Amino acid sequence: MKLFLLFPLFLSILSCLTSPEIYLNNNAVYWKKNVSNKIASDIYQNIYRFDENGDINFFVYGYKRKIKYKLFLMKEINEAFYYKNSTLKNYIVESLPAFNLYIDALTKNDNNTLYVNKHFSRDFKNRSIYLPIGLMVKDDNLYIAKTYGNDYKTRLLHWLIKNGYGSYKNWIPAINVNWASYPIPTEHEIDWNNLEIVGKLF
Length: 202
Prior knowledge:
- The chain is of the alpha+beta class.
- About 30% of the residues lie in helices and about 30% in strands.
- It contains 6 helices and 10 strands, in the order H-H-E-E-E-E-E-H-H-H-E-E-H-E-E-E.
- The chain has helices spanning about 1-15, 25-35, 90-95, 100-105, 110-115, 150-165; strands at about 40, 45-50, 55-60, 65-75, 80-85, 130-140, 140-145, 165, 170-175, 195-200.
- Strands 1-2-3-4-5-6-7-10 form an 8-stranded antiparallel β-sheet. Strands 8-9 form a two-stranded antiparallel sheet.
- The chain is elongated, with a radius of gyration of 19 Å.
């Protein structure tokens, strides 16, 4: 009986790991007023479209499918945290330089996809995760913080050393690589000193 009662609680705790707790204070009211129903586009013609709740539909140039970013935490009155849902495998492929498929996607090259898949065994357990970014509005310009600071870089470096050989673009996974422990960044590791301008909000 006790195990039966604990099982739903376990599932509830597990589900919390796939999305952050939403905590919006009074600063969020000001933020939403400034960004709701506005649009900004970057130099690559990617579009950030805010809805009436301050959440974002992000459209990558050349792709019809949108990526949803949800507001979940305020840093300052003009700085906010957003997150998108992803999976562990997608994040590994997107973030590891040795696996990055961005260029291959542009050139429709499937060879790298096959190279990546051979490193994931059939026992690989994919899971849902969330990935945070930071946004700032200043003088009607939208800025984005999408890189992570030294704390995260240190965690990642230790994982790379423990689970493979080489570094950066030449890194190769070990046979017993532990993909499940691949470091997932948190909102506290966002590098707010490395802001990039997106463009004018209108």
